[in-house]
Amino acid sequence: MAQAYLQVTTTTDSRQEAAGIAKSAVQERLAACAQLVGPIASTYWWEGEIESAEEWMIFFKTTAESFEELADLITELHSYDTPEIIATPVVAGSTDYLQWITDQTAELEETGE
């Protein structure tokens, strides 16, 4: 069976927190890449009220195999009670880029680190 790929997103209320989560995910090889976008304007329901906030979004490029560990790491490092963690399947991509994701998220296992 072919490797399955995901783009996982989360948002935080500060660039510093977003950068820390992104760096940890890449260091742990749970994502090959993490991209920060922001600030973005978010409007949402929270505890019975409509809230608005400025947030930073992180896009992680990863494999389906790494998702659960990545989600656990995001939850552990995140300051929100209920962080957004959404995985979108990558339906298609360049063969070389997808292979790069595989290589970068598998390197720890291969080197025994």
Main β-sheet, spatial strand arrangement: 2-3-1-4
**Distance linking N and C termini:** 26 Å
Strand content: 35-45%
Briefly, what CATH class? Alpha Beta
Instruction: Report the oligomer.
Output: single chain
Count of DSSP H/I helices: 3
Structural classification: alpha+beta
Structural description of this entry:
This protein is α+β, with helices and mostly antiparallel strands. The chain has one domain (5-105): Alpha-Beta Plaits, CATH 3.30.70. It is 36% helix and 36% strand. It is built from 3 helices and 4 strands; from the N terminus they run E-H-E-E-H-E-H. It has a 4-stranded antiparallel β-sheet with strand order 2-3-1-4. Strand 2 and strand 3 (49-63) form a beta hairpin.
Task: Provide key terms for this protein.
alpha+beta; four-stranded antiparallel sheet; elongated; 113 residues; Alpha-Beta Plaits; 3 helices; single chain; 36% helix
How would you sum up this structure in a few lines?
The protein has 113 residues and is of the alpha+beta class. The chain contains three helices and four strands, in the order βαββαβα. A four-stranded antiparallel β-sheet has the order 2-3-1-4.
Write the layout of secondary structure elements.
Layout: E1 5-12, H1 15-27, E2 33-46, E3 49-63, H2 67-77, E4 86-89, H3 95-111
Antiparallel strand pairs: 1-3, 1-4, 2-3
Helix pairs in contact: 1-2
GO molecular function, one term: copper ion binding
InterPro entries: Ion_tolerance_CutA, N-reg_PII-like_a/b, N-reg_PII/ATP_PRibTrfase_C
Protein name: Divalent-cation tolerance protein CutA
